[in-house]
Design goal:
Structural class of chain A: alpha+beta
CATH superfamily of the largest domain in chain B: Aldehyde oxidase/xanthine dehydrogenase, molybdopterin binding domain
Number of strands of chain B: 27
Number of domains of chain B: 3
Structural class of chain B: alpha+beta
Number of strands of chain A: 5
CATH class of the largest domain in chain A: Alpha Beta
Strand content of chain A: 5-15%
Number of helices of chain A: 5
Order of helices and strands of chain A: EEHEEEHHHH
CATH superfamily of the largest domain in chain A: Beta-grasp domain
Radius of gyration of chain A: 15 Å
CATH architecture of the largest domain in chain B: 2-Layer Sandwich
CATH class of the largest domain in chain B: Alpha Beta
Shape of chain A: globular
Strand content of chain B: 15-25%
Number of domains of chain A: 2
Helix content of chain A: 25-40%
Oligomer: heterodimer
Amino acid sequence: MDVTMTVNGVQRTVSTDPERPLLDVLREDLHLTGTKYGCGEGRCGACTVLMDGKRTLACVTPVSLANKKAITTIEGLAKGDTLHPVQEAFLEEGAIQCGYCTSGMILTAAALLQENPNPTDEQIVTGMNGNICRCNGYVKIVNAVRKAAQKMRR
Amino acid sequence: MSGNISTKSLEAEFDPVLSRRTFVQVLGAGILITVTDGLAWAQRGERGGSMPVAARIHLNEDGTISAMSGKVEEGQGPRAQLSQAAAEELRVPVERIRLIMADTALVPDDGITAGSRTTPYNVPPMRQAAATARELLTQLAAKQWQVDAAGLEVRDGTITNKATGQKLTYADLAKSRDIVEAFSKNIRSDITVTAVNEWKVLGSPVLRPNARDIVTGEHKFPSDIVRPNMLYGKILRPPSYGAMLESIDLTAAKAMKDMVVVQDGQFVGFAAPSSWRATEAMEAAAKTASWKTSPHPSSKTIHAYLKEHAETGRGRPSNRGSIEKGLADAAKTLSETYTLAYIQHTPMEPRAAVAEWNDGKLMVWAGCDGPYRARGDLARLFNIPAEQVHVIIPDMGGGFGGKHSAEAALEAAQLAKAAGRPVHVRWTRAEEFTWAYFRPAAVIECKGGLDAKGSLIAWDFTNINAGGAAIDTPYNIPNTRIASVGSDSPVKQGSYRCLAATGNNFARESFMDELAVAAGADPLAFRLAHLENPRIRTVLETVAKHFNWAGRRKKVTLELGVGLACGTEKNSVVAACVEVGIDRKRGEIKVHEVCEAFECGPIQNPANLLSQVQGCIVMGLGGALFEEIQFEDGKILNASFAGYRVPRFTDVPRIDVHLVNKTDIPSAGGGETPIIALAPAIGNAIFAATGVRIRSMPMRGDVLKQA
């Protein structure tokens, strides 16, 4: 089927098997490789994208469900050279080790702060808990999300 | 943007064919390093000294400096640290360094990235190379001005004649004809490098140079490499360990549009324009396959199996005094067995590679720890000279010792050869769980003897299957017998963050606690009474003070325990105090707090070291409390994140890290040893609260329900 999505503000149409994961279409058809494969079972959050602004796990989302939707991937989060506050905060806090989980972490945090601009640490921990970091850099990631919240409230 | 030559630019500018021209394109005009030079120093990296400065340092005309290392960045921090090392000795800000890593066409063979070796064995040669380069550049300036080099000063990449005020920048000298000859001189291993107390770049917190590319999604990990006309590959896997393919019908798969099907003995692979279609073909073919299976033991009885299959003769023990006499003389003896499960590294990025053939030459981008090792494996598989294989390891998504092998590279290259097009292979999570390798399981047998005064006089310690890392006791005991004994592991096992040191330290530090109880002593006092090593004493006393060990030990209840442990490995030392909450009815163990002190000599990048220690602490929780590979009939029963629990945000305790900066010894690596104190400290805290000693990793809370 033909699937038409607005990806990072640009309308894209792909002709594809409707069952294919959105993740595969983003990576293999559109070459947007910032969204990562981590588990294929929706349990690690590496594939997180925003679909109509909502946090969505692209590895378990058939691409047909993305038809006529707006998708934001990590490549579309910054405005030109101006980073999103969550991206800035990850840099400032050094909340990166191998960096493979980072795209998913940043988009999850962006969605979380959209819904709750003033989260407690406990709410950050609960809200981020679907994302795994195997470098186990959780301490600095929580610091970064807390700092991003402060930046966004300013 | 990025402070480095990105994979993207290498991809765009590199012919797969290795040539002088491509090298110069990437590095910019300046020094010419020929391909034959490159091969001459290919095997010498870690030994340093015997290669030209040009093998490590290249001046770019824009004032930046390329530095070259065979190490792989996988989150442990060498990209920042090696950049700092070069910047420090060249007297330039770290932003001026463009570090090129793990590209067999450009960098020396620095061995595989493992064993915390980058800091002790690769930072020094980088510093020597940069210091030699600075010396040679100063001499060139002196020659141009016809003055004595002693009257020149180097600061911020500019050489100044203090008498006349004349200046020359590195970029100026990069254009001079003399530089080619100068940088063809060997790196001096006897050159004086900057003393720790004069460090300006080393010793300061430096962010990973390509961090911005990570947060924007620009960085290309191995699984992100896209080549023109590329196909996606899938490999048929056996249904169980040891299963052999007897027959398969590939007709249907071969009939699929744009499908490449390869069968070569047991290797059956498929490549298609999408991984979805390659998977469809693979699954269709799998239904027609018949396999000869073989029996395989269960993880439920693995420890008995390992003991049964242990090498006879108990290895070659290292002895001190007489263990027989020590045990015979003891007023009290204890004997216990500890066990460890197999666990998996589960790096966030599974194995991945892209392979491309051009005129019989092979170009591979892969996620593995050894670019030169992978090159050798590929050359052997295809029976071609190693020089015809070019391997690049883009900064990859984690490893933790689990990516020493380059299976995906070999698979992608086989498919690409048949397809005549580039092929991408990325393992699924289930494949990574099943077909990579595991940290070894172990059975560890301990005997100890105390004299009438409660001093430890006998120590008998045998590790079956996991290995000898950190197996020697740091405690002062007159009679010891310590042995590492091999066994016949029924599953593929290999390296892991600190490997056997975690298990050996778990058994040793738990057993020390048991002996302290038997001696009627406080666990801290008991350890200190037997400990001479001043470095371990320092970290132990540091955590005891910050955690308030003495005060909090008095407040232990049935629901709240505290424990401590220490250890040494890879020339670094660690100690931890933990507080654990226990719900016996529910069988729940929750680590509330970890206070850890770590010392690995002079700290080169405190921000990264903190990340490593925090990461080790949380990763250590997984192996301590819940990670365990389960298998039956040759199948992994929990080959997914649903079945195999790893630490998440909600598992993270309060973490208080104390980095001890010891400046009078050489720096050691810091990415592994901080993991070894966690499990025993937790086990000791559980015992302190409940009186139940859990002698197996993972330490499952349900044991407490029954006990």
